[in-house]
Every structure is written in C-alpha cells, then in structure tokens.
Amino acid sequence: MFVGAVFFPLLGASIAGFFGRWIGDRAAQLATVICMVLAAACGLTAFWQVALGHSSQTIEILTFVDVGGLEVSWALRYDTLSAVMVGMVTLISTLIHIYSVGYMSHDPSRPRFFAYLSLFTFMMLMLVTADNLVQLFFGWEGVGLASYLLIGFWYEKESACAAAMKAFIVNRVGDLFFMLGLALTFWTFGSVEFSTIFGSIDQHMDATFAGFRAYEVIGVLLFLGACGKSAQLGLHTWLPDAMEGPTPVSALIHAATMVTAGVFLVARMSPVFEYAPTALAVVTVVGASTALFAATIGCVQNDIKRIIAYSTCSQLGYMFFAAGVGAYQGAIFHLFTHAFFKALLFLGAGSVIHAMSDEQDIRKMGGIWKKIPVTYAVMWIGSLALAGVPYFAGYYSKDFVLEAAFAAHSGVGTYAFWCGIAAAFLTAFYSWRLIILTFHGTPRADHHTMEHVHESPAVMLVPLLVLAAGAVLTGAVFAPDFIGHHWEEFWRGAIVNAPHNEIMHHVHEVPEWVPLLPTVVGLSGIALAYILYMLAPSIPGKLASTFGGVYRFLLNKWYFDELYDAIFVRPTRALARVLWQTGDATIIDGVPNGAAALAADVARGAVRLQTGRVASYAFTMIAGLAVFVTMLAFGAAR
Amino acid sequence: MNAAGFPLLSLLTFLPLAGAIFILTLKGEDKVVADNARWAALWTSLIVFALSLILWFRFDKTDPGFQFVERLDWLTDFGISYHMGVDGISVLFVLLSTLLTPICVLASWDAIQTRVREYMVAFLVLETMMVGMFAALDFIVFYVFFEGVLIPMFLIIGVWGGKRRVYASFKFFLYTLLGSVLMLLAILLLWYRAGTTDIPALFQHAIPPAVQTWIFLAFFASFAVKVPMWPFHTWLPDAHVEAPTAGSVILAGVLLKMGAYGFLRFSLPLLPHASADFAPAIYVLSIVAVVYTSLVALAQEDMKKLIAYSSVAHMGIVTLGIFTFNVQGLSGALFTMLSHGVVSGALFLCVGVLYDRVHSREIARYGGVAKIMPSYAVIFMLFTMASVGLPGLAGFPGELLVIVAAWKVNPTVAFGAALGMILGAAYMLYLYKRVAFGRITKDDLRGLLDMSPREHLVFAPLILLAIWMGVSPQTFLSFFEASVTALVVRHEAALGAARLAGM
C-alpha cells in the first residue's frame, strides 16, 4: 500500500507515455486516471494509518550509492509529515486528472499530457517520502522536469518554450545551492539520511564551516534551494511565466504541490533549522518580503492566471515565515489548506477560461456570473478561503501563521507579522478585484464569445465541488490535529521543535486583537475592491494615471525580468560569444593553427598518395609504429 | 591464473583484428562486398561483446588487484613483456568499448556508402586498439595501443568526414601526437630507472619527488590533450564536427576517456607527490573547463560542436574528481566517464539521426521536430536530461559524487563545478528548444520519417544503460570500489611516508 501510493502514478505515466499512441487517447486517459484513483486510495489510507493512526515506518527498496561512507538508498519514509503530503498530493492530483479529462478534451496530444501529469505526481511523491537528501533531490529535480515538460506542453508556442526553459534554469540556480548544502550536510554528519542526521544533531552542534556554524550554512544553502522551487523573492520570476502551461498544470504544480516543496524541505529539516537561528531569520525575512511583494503585483495584473500565480507566490511567503519563526506545523497546515483552495481557484479560473473561449484577460470578461453559476460559486468559496474569512479553511491556517509571527516576539517576527497583515489586505483586495472584473459588470467580451459562454461539463465540475468542500472544511476539521491541542501526538517528532522553541504554546497567548486583525483587514480589502470596481468603476483608471510611476512599476513586476535580463542573460550570452570567437578561435587556436595550416598543405599531398587502400595504409602504420618503438627501446638499452 | 580459463583479454583484443583481416579478403561486386563487410563487422563486434560479458559476470569485485592476467615474454632482456589484465578501474571501459563498437557499426549501416569495407576494417582495428589499451599492463604495450588508436580514428575522420575533414584530422593527429612524444620520453625515463615497463612492478618503485615533477609534466602533456583539458581542447570540436556520426560516438565515448584513464592509471599511483602538488592547478583548469566551455557551448550554432563543447565541460568534472584523491571523487570521476561515454555517444547518435535525413548540422535549420518525429523527440529529451545531470539518469550520480568530494577539498571548487549544473541546463535546453520545439518553419522537414527499427535498435541499449546507471549506480560503482579504495590508501600512504621522511 505504501509502495502503491508512490508507484501507481509511475505505472499510469508509463502506460500513457509509451503506449498512448497504440491504445488511443481514451484508454490512455482511463489508465492514468485509474492508476491515480488507486494511488489516492493508498495515499489516503496511508494518511489514515500513519498520521491519524500513529504508525511511522520506512520501506527500503534498493541501494542507490554506497561509496566510501556515502550511503544512499531508495527508500520510502512514512511519518506524519510525509503522510500528510502523500494524502494531499494523491487526492488533489486525482481530482486534477479527472478535471483534465474535460478540460483537455479538445487537445490532440492527450496521452502525452496525462503521462506528464502522472509522472509529475510520481516525482512529487518520491520527494515527500524521501528518507535522505539525495532521493529528495531526485524528486526535486523530477518535479522540475515534469514542470518543464508541462509548461512547454504547447511547444509550438514560442512563449511556452521560453517559459519552460526559464522555469528549469531558474530552478537550477536554486538546485546548485541545494547540492552544496547536501555536500556540507554529508561532511558534517557523515550521512545524508534523515534518521542519521536527526539522531546526531547534538554531536555536531559545534561543527563550523569557514568560520560560521555549519548548521547555519546548511540552513541557508538549503533555503536558497527552496527559494528556487518555491518561487521566493529573487528566484520567483519563473512562476508567473509558468502560467503558459495548461490550467490544470498550474493548479497541480504551480499552486498546490510542487511549489510547496521548498516549505516541505524546511519543515523536513526542522531539526537542523531549529539550531540555526540566523538561517531561520533569513527564512522569515525573505518569506515575509515575498508575501508582501507578490501581493502588490497581484493587485494590478490583468491575466486571470497570473493574478492567482502571484497570490500563490505570496501565500508561499506566509508559509516560509511561519517556518522561519519556528512554527513549522503552521507552515505545513497553511500548505495543506492552501493546496485545496488554490487548486480550486486555478481550476475555477480554468473553467472561466474554458467558458470564455480561451480568453485570459480579465479586462475582456465581465457579466458572466449568471451563465456559469457553479464556477462563480466555487470561485467565491476559493477567494473566501484565500482571504482568510472566518470558518473557511484559510482562516484557520493564515490566522495561526500570523499569530505565530506575532508570538515570536522578535524583530524579524514583527516584520513578518506586519508584512503578513498588509499582504492579507491586498490579498482580499485583488481576489475581489478578480471576481468582480471577471463575473460582474457589463460584458466586455465580443458578442461571439459571449454567445459561447457555457458552464463546464460535469467531469470538470465534480472536482471543483470536491475541492470547494475541502476549501470550506479542511481548516475546521484538521486544525485541532495540525496546530491545536493534539499537535504533539499528531506530529510525533516528524517535525521537531527544539526545547527552547515554545512558539506552539505562545501562539495561544497573544493579545485578543491579533487574531481579529487579519479578519478585519481581509474584510476591508473586500470592501475596498467592492467600492473601486463595483460602485465607482472609474476610480481605478484615474488612480493608475495619477500614480503612473507606481502603477507601471507594479504592472512590470518591479522590473525583475528586465533587471535579470540586463545583469545575467545578456552578459552571459555576450561573454559566450566572446569566449568562443576570441578565446577559442583566435587565441587558443591561433598558436597551433599556423602549424595546422602547414599540416593541411602537407595533407593535400598525402591524400593524393593514398589511393584507396586505406586499410593497408593503416596496417603499415601500426606495424611501423610497433617496430619503431621496439627499436627505440632497443637502441636506448645499449 | 585466469578466471576465464583462457586468454580472454587477448581474445577480446585481437578478435576484431581477425575480423578486419577477414573483411579485407572479401572479394566481388562492390555492393555485395559492402553488404558482407557490414554483416561481418557486426557479427565480429557482437561476438566480442558477448565474450566481454564474461568480464562482467566473472570479475571479482572484492579483489583490488589485476584479474584475468595474461603474461607472455616479449623482450625479456629489457624487462618488457606482453602483459594484460584488468582491475576495477579498467574493466568497465573494456566493456564500454566492446558495447559501443557494434552500436557504431549499426549506426553506420546506411549512413556510410563509400568504401564500406575499409570503413568497417577501420572500426574493428579501432576496437582492437581501444580494448588493448585498457587491458595493457605493460607500459610499452600500452603505448603502442594508445598511439595505435590514433591511426584508425585519423582515417575515419580524414576519409569519411565532412567538408573540412583533412584540416580536422590533421589537427587531431598532431595535437595528440605532440603530447605522446613527451610521454614516450617519460616512459623511457621510467624504464631507465626501474629496468622494467611492467606496470604492477612500476607501482612498487618509488620515484624521487623531483623526478616526479618532470614525469608528471610529460604525462600531463599527453593526457591533458587527450582528455581534453582546457586550453588544449580546440582539436575536439573540429574533430567531432567533421567526423562521421559513428566516429564521433567512439571519439566521445571511448577516446576521451583515455586521457583520464591515463591520469588514474599512471599519474596518480606512480607520481603521488607530483599529483598532489599539481592538484590545485588541475582544479583551476577543470573549473575553467566547466565554466568556459559551457559558455562557449551556449553560443554554438552547430549541433555537434555544441555537444563537443559539452564533452569538454563534463571532462572537467572528471579531472576534478580524479584529483580530489578521495574515494567519492575517484568513483564519481570514473562513473562520469562511463556515463558520459553512454550519454554523449547517444547524443551524437541523435544528431546523426537528423543529419542522415537533412544533411545539416546547423541548429537553425531545424525547429518543431518534436511534431514530426515524436519518438525521436522522446529519446533526444531523455539523453538531453541525462546530460544535464537529472537525478534518475546516468549523468547525476557521478556529478553528485564529484561535487561532494570537491566540497571536502575546497568549497569554492565545488561551487565552480556546480555552476556547470546551471550552464549545462542552459545550453542543452536551448539546443533542444531550437531543434525540437517551436513551429515548423522549414517545409522540407514535414516529410521526415520518425526513427526506423534499426535506429531504435541502436538506441535501445543506450537508453537501457542511461536509466540503469541512473537508478542503480551502485551496480557499476561496486566494480570500482576495491581498486579505488586501494588507490586512495596507497596515495595517502605515499604522501604520509614522505612527510615522515621529511621530519
């Protein structure tokens, strides 16, 4: 069962990928969906048994490497943390597979799509069940590959190919640090297996590296790796572009699962991070900044998917600063609820795009809520959960995260708290801006498109409804276990809080206004969006022209892409050209080319001599060489 | 004396030569001769491969010494004998050579139409030389094979190559020969001092550090060109570009490994002090190779040139691993050599598949190939990813081990090597994007056929290996383990002894 949860998707991917052309589209879809349903059944059972039934275990499969003390195995580690992830990933992935059957029904290469989707799920499961850093890295890179393939799924589109490449390469920048962190971990602990690392935390407490404590360096390096995958400030540029992929992909990979891998990594390595206060401070600051930064951009974007993408980026920031102040449980809980409502929002957006004949610009939508009532309703639910309105899933997790930041009573914690509050306000604002512009007001699409607006088929609506249920319920149902009074017996050491870290208790002792504030700013954000876009639709335009500089700055995403283009991409390409044409062709080749030119002249003569008996020529030379060497040895001996 | 019960290594070495002689005796109509030559070469190389599998199954992984040893007196007076044997370091390279040869023969089945008989003869002779070189345990025998490799390769490039084949083949020949002359002098010096050229015997012979430096430099001249290390690498892109597909496969797959093999076999065990002294210089050259050639690869407009430059970058990882002098680094270097043999060989075959159809290596000439040749696109993607070092495929374990090992020596060096991860991804994906993705703009591409069954057959073993090496690298690493550990122990002992003597 534990193995099945991980390997069924691989089976599905192989069937669809290798035999898709022979068995046909329908059979390929069916195969992957059935495999996913089986995986989900296994995954949920695993969640039930391991997380709720308190029985961790590790399953060894195969030795990967065993060289001079570096021992790595393929193994599945099931503790509460991985069981939570396995259950969540298999469930959401199954829903998205089902949704895709409807969404992709007009696409000519469906088997390929489903193969990629299942491959991704397999890699993600390998990542979360890894029992050592190398296997985690396997899953880490594997999801990167699947993400690359899926972003570039419509490979005839130039922008899709560019976005796919960008995603892979930016991720690789993070991976470089991951790899270095892995190397340092090995030389510090003598192992990369989690059980060994966590078991010997105390012994290597004083290990240093280049004058710093090794734990701090490991923490920072791994966090930089996590920044790449989880699109944190600086390495976030790939995520909005990744929206070039089909919408179900955005929902599964770039919202619910893959991008949360960085948060998972920090939580997984919590025993090390706990003793790396500086690294945690870095995590907090970067996470908090990202939360606010991405939210500001989300307020002015016009592409429905990009708005949600920036929202994802921002929510990931929340998760990181929760982990940064030591409340890993809160980070994972937010990750868990976020997976449901963000997948819901993306799939809802997909349903809108489907209805609007592939239009993604919210300026060209409007006035369609009566035509697609179910989609409209689930988008409301998703947004309510995202904005943290009470009793929806996001309320429990987001409030907890913010309370934890406050309860940290540290400088960075306070910074994170206020960033988080500001971001919560903006989150609510852009969510309702999206809803109002998309569904309300006068229709701005052309007549032809409006005629075509239709509710999606049942195969797409059912997953939406299931996710909507998740977005409503997961917070209330799981809060007691994840972060409430049962947290210690629920996690059972899968996440470690050092003895000095009592944040899980302090959270419940914050002043009364703290839990109230996120709700208040959330509701005022909604109100502001309602006023600006519903009651006085002329104001936003005026604001944009009054504050033209700010508006353009936000619309162009703080000019990060342009900046990177100017300081990395262009110089690299220019340097590449210089090295090739000047370095290689002129300088390095210049010296022997004189000789080579001479040789070429000789060669012209030699070729004429060589009249076809190539082989005999070769033999003569070999024989000659042997004789020559023998004679030389002979001569030298005298 | 021999686990196989018969002189297996000699058989492996000289059977291809016998096949070559047989092919030379073929007479008759051109077409018939060509056909017979193809089949004869294929069968010869397949039989050799089948025989070489004995090495895989009968090799004793716990024994760090030489196995399957054969010894025959040759020039006894001078301490030179015909001595063959393999240890954990060389055994898999023998297998790599015997595996790649039939693949090359099969890959050239339709591509080569002129002088087929001579072409097949050249390949079989090449196989003899390669196997002999990896199995030789006498320095003179080694040298004969080491240099002998040049001749068939020179002919393959010079006769069946592209437009600038003569320039490329001479550049190749002169570059490599120049280094070899110095190596020959070093061998003579060694022989002069020790009175023997027997390699295991030489291992017992301590050389004063001052002399070591000179010998090391002489070896370095030869091996660095062969690897090739920056800045001696410029012969490689030219040779690759002009060589026929199968020639590139062997060049990248086996010939590039000869230099690194030389470092491992001779420089490290014979010259421990000089190796340790020169290690920092090697690190610098390796890192420059990784970063510099990756950047140059990024600017390439010719598919083969791009992959050739990527080879130089990968070889940078190899030389770096070798000179870390720890078990992880050496194993990683050996593993990278093997995986690079498989992966870059396969990448050259991928280029060959397109070249056979369109007769152009220019990247801009393609675009949107994934649409017309889906199964080709999958295979090309697989090897692209393997080259990038995606975990789960062949390129990763070696890279991982070398970076981990390099971190121990110097974290900056590890960082430099890891930069290759980013740049490697950049140039390979950029290549893939331009070739396979995008809209089809060239109309004649629409008519291309996807891979033929023969081509599938060519790729099948390489695909299998790329995945196997990625999923279970331990199968291959276990071959190295005993020999590499012994090498490291001896290296440290030698340095330790000198330190004691110095005190």
Automatic annotation (TrEMBL), chain A:
Domain annotation NADH-Ubiquinone oxidoreductase (complex I) chain 5 N-terminal: ranges: 65-114
GO terms in the biological process aspect are: ATP synthesis coupled electron transport; electron transport coupled proton transport
Q: What is this protein called?
A: NADH-quinone oxidoreductase subunit L
Q: How does it sit in the membrane?
A: Multi-pass membrane protein
Which InterPro entries does this one have?
NADHpl_OxRdtase_5_subgr, ND/Mrp_TM, NU5C-like, Proton_antipo_N
One Pfam short name: Proton_antipo_N
Q: List GO molecular-function terms, semicolon-separated.
A: NADH dehydrogenase (ubiquinone) activity; NADH dehydrogenase activity
Species this chain originates from: Neoroseomonas marina
Give the taxonomic lineage as stored in the record.
Bacteria, Pseudomonadati, Pseudomonadota, Alphaproteobacteria, Acetobacterales
Bilayer-spanning residue ranges = 6-23, 30-51, 80-101, 113-130, 136-155, 176-201, 207-228, 249-267, 279-300, 307-325, 331-353, 374-395, 415-437, 458-479, 513-533, 614-637
Renumbered to this chain, the signal peptide range is none
Q: Which UniProt keywords apply?
A: Membrane, Transmembrane, Transmembrane helix
Instruction: Tell me the gene name.
Output: nuoL
Residue intervals of the NADH:quinone oxidoreductase/Mrp antiporter transmembrane domain: 130-419
Where it sits in the cell: the answer is: Endomembrane system; Membrane
User: Mainly localized where?
Assistant: membrane
From TrEMBL, chain B:
> Per the record, GO CC terms?
endomembrane system; membrane
* Keyword Plastid applies: no
Under Pfam families, the record lists: Oxidored_q5_N, Proton_antipo_M
Name by which UniProt lists this protein? NADH-quinone oxidoreductase subunit M
**Major place of localization?**
membrane
Species: Neoroseomonas marina
What is the membrane topology here? Answer: Multi-pass membrane protein
Spell out the subcellular localization from the entry. Answer: Endomembrane system; Membrane
UniProt enzyme class: oxidoreductase
Domain NADH:ubiquinone oxidoreductase chain 4 N-terminal: where? Answer: 79-130
